[in-house]
């Protein structure tokens, strides 16, 4: 599909992976639900070279920095493509919002920011610090969307239903949101990328005020 362009200097994208039934992960399942393929992993590498600053909270920082470190070790258990996607994050600028982590952070190119994450991101957008994108960090992504700061909402949908084992429901606590599709793609014949322009609604369209 065609894509509507946004000003890259002020753009913010929420970027999520999700099961078909709306979970970010599942107990007992491997990362990416075990369905990441070479085409998807190559795309992740390409995305990491587009100049994004990655925004995340403390929990995502702990998980991803640990995985990136493990990927550099021999017999890490990661495939070559998985390892490249993870270690490639070392060189990417990252902003970590946390009141519990202490500086300096061990993951290269990571800046620690305390205080109100929404106001910090609002200022980053005003100052043209983009392009910005979230990495995981469901509560941060939700807060930024509620605040009307998100220019793109991008999902990669994995073809699994984890009704018994699903963890981290993505849309709990979200407002009503209208989504205008501006891009789509299929990876490895099974993963579906969907990209939207989001508009936060006060209620159902056409409903009573």
Automatic annotation (TrEMBL):
<feature type="domain" description="Bacterial bifunctional deaminase-reductase C-terminal">
    <location>
        <begin position="12"/>
        <end position="192"/>
    </location>
</feature>
<dbReference type="InterPro" id="IPR050765">
    <property type="entry name" value="Riboflavin_Biosynth_HTPR"/>
</dbReference>
<dbReference type="GO" id="GO:0008703">
    <property type="term" value="F:5-amino-6-(5-phosphoribosylamino)uracil reductase activity"/>
</dbReference>
<dbReference type="Pfam" id="PF01872">
    <property type="entry name" value="RibD_C"/>
</dbReference>
<dbReference type="GO" id="GO:0009231">
    <property type="term" value="P:riboflavin biosynthetic process"/>
</dbReference>
<protein>
    <submittedName>
        <fullName>Dihydrofolate reductase</fullName>
    </submittedName>
</protein>
<dbReference type="InterPro" id="IPR002734">
    <property type="entry name" value="RibDG_C"/>
</dbReference>
<dbReference type="InterPro" id="IPR024072">
    <property type="entry name" value="DHFR-like_dom_sf"/>
</dbReference>
């Amino acid at each position: 599909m065609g894509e509507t362009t946004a000003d890259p200097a002020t753009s913010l994208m929420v970027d999520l992976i999700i099961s078909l039934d709306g979970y970010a992960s599942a107990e007992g399942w491997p990362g990416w639900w075990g369905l990441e393929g070479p085409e998807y992993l190559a795309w992740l590498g390409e995305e990491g070279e587009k100049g994004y600053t990655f925004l995340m909270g403390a929990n995502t920082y702990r998980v991803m920095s640990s995985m990136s470190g493990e990927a550099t070790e021999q017999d890490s258990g990661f495939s070559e493509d998985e390892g490249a996607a993870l270690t490639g994050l070392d060189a990417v600028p990252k902003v970590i919002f946390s009141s519990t982590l202490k500086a300096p952070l061990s993951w290269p190119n990571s800046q620690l920011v305390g205080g109100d994450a929404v106001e910090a991101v609002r200022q980053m957008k005003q100052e043209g610090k983009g392009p910005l994108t979230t990495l995981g960090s469901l509560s941060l992504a939700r807060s930024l969307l509620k605040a009307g700061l998100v220019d793109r909402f991008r999902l990669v949908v994995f073809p699994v239903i984890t009704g018994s084992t699903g963890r981290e429901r993505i849309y709990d606590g979200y407002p009503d949101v209208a989504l205008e599709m501006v891009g789509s793609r299929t990876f490895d014949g099974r993963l579906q990328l969907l990209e939207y322009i989001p508009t936060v609604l006060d209620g159902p369209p056409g409903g009573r005020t």
